[in-house]
Amino acid sequence: MNLNQITVPSLDLHKSVPFYQKLGLQLIVDAIPDYARYECPEGDATFSIHKVTELPKGDGIYVYFECIDLDERVTTLLKNGIEFDELPKDKKWLWREARLRDLDGNQIILFHGGVNRKNPPWRLTS
């Protein structure tokens, strides 16, 4: 099994689509106002947005995008007007993360986990 894509809800794709392009995703399906799909610059996963009339309640959705050049990428995004809730910070789970929200409140985490992404010291053994 392989993860194909993540889809997040949006109230207004006319606003959401440029936001994700500014993050660095490549638009590959433009079915605005109802749907948009992107390729990630690395790997095979895709990311999409679909129009909803109401956003989910509670904490919402968390989407993690790994960036080898996390600090440099955050600096560039800040210069391009992207606002962050948390700038790059080393976490106790051995990842470095920066946190922001998209225009619909979905939580976006840009991170670098390196070898610890899939193989932290506390990984279960089979």
Automatic annotation (TrEMBL):
Gene3D superfamilies: 2,3-Dihydroxybiphenyl 1,2-Dioxygenase, domain 1. Residues 2-113 form the VOC domain. InterPro entries: Glyas_Bleomycin-R_OHBP_Dase, Glyas_Fos-R_dOase_dom, VOC_core. This is VOC family protein. It comes from Aggregatimonas sangjinii. The lineage of its organism: Bacteria, Pseudomonadati, Bacteroidota, Flavobacteriia, Flavobacteriales.
